[in-house]
Fold this sequence. Notes:
Layout: H1 7-39, H2 55-65, H3 76-92, E1 106-108, E2 111-113, H4 123-144, H5 148-179, H6 184-189, H7 196-199, H8 201-214, H9 226-229, H10 239-264, H11 274-277, H12 286-308, H13 314-344, H14 349-387, H15 419-438
Antiparallel strand pairs: 1-2
Amino acid sequence: xxxxxxxxxxxxxxxxxxxxxxxxxxxxxxxxxxxxxxxxxxxxxxxxxxxxxxxxxxxxxxxxxxxxxxxxxxxxxxxxxxxxxxxxxxxxxxxxxxxxxxxxxxxxxxxxxxxxxxxxxxxxxxxxxxxxxxxxxxxxxxxxxxxxxxxxxxxxxxxxxxxxxxxxxxxxxxxxxxxxxxxxxxxxxxxxxxxxxxxxxxxxxxxxxxxxxxxxxxxxxxxxxxxxxxxxxxxxxxxxxxxxxxxxxxxxxxxxxxxxxxxxxxxxxxxxxxxxxxxxxxxxxxxxxxxxxxxxxxxxxxxxxxxxxxxxxxxxxxxxxxxxxxxxxxxxxxxxxxxxxxxxxxxxxxxxxxxxxxxxxxxxxxxxxxxxxxxxxxxxxxxxxxxxxxxxxxxxxxxxxxxxxxxxxxxxxxxxxxxxxxxxxxxxxxxxxxxxxxx
Length: 439
């Protein structure tokens, strides 16, 4: 079904994918400012256009008319290429996103074509690869600026993307096991009877958390922590280059929302009960409407999180990625693989539940036993350490202050007296001194 379109139709479909992403970004910026203002009991943008709907367009014009400053100490070639490298891959992922069924072709100037630019047998891997390229723009922007704070922001973003892409990839693997394909159109087709958000709820939750961390959005906006990094990797950028970074962030939001819609929310399929009541809900141009509504609902989730949750600390964020999301996603993948293997061997549901549930229960009991013995050993070690004489630690023994090693404690700091008490003591000392002189 793909690869037979004439060249002019391929160009039209590519322009449509670009226009869909851009229009969704323009709408999302206004929507975000409106929703956050509503949450904070403010008015929000209401000057440009009806109900302030042209505010994002006005912001883009303002940024393009600002002075384009290039830092004198920057690597100018990399400094200019970094925003481009960050923005272009965000649009490329839409090449394999299905906006409608492949077997229900629409007519464009008399030519029948599916509502998808192209498809690949490994379409989801292509999306992951393209999304990973965008991090190079952030890293190169932080390095090429020749400043400390942008470099810190770029390094933070690198660690963040690597951490959360692992959990995201493992969450995708569960979808591959159920759909028997990595093709985006085939994954949507396999959700005809039931969406994967119902079959794989843990994978969906892991992906939701990972996509927020992948796009550097609050509460995971650590590369742009203004209070800590003075703006992050884009501190030294202005004008159109700064606008490209903002554009890349919002296009990435649209991209990950479209992927979540495709993999877990039935893609272009109409929601229940519309699909059962109306036979033509998934034909013609209607699938584009259902797809857009689902994407906008996920974008609202981004906005809701930004207006609700405070920013996490960096150590909490990395702990969530490495110690929670990745182990949970791996264990869940093992359970899904076990269920699929038993189902392929024609085991009934009760047998599958018995085998898998029994294995999970055994692991939980084993972990409880390990925790009990570990806590007992820790308490015993602490009790023995308390019985031993405490070693005095002098932080200035070497001539300069050093932090204590594990097991060493700093000497108690003498507490300062309250201000009023200090004045009374000094007055009493002066009085005693004067009486002594008189005597």
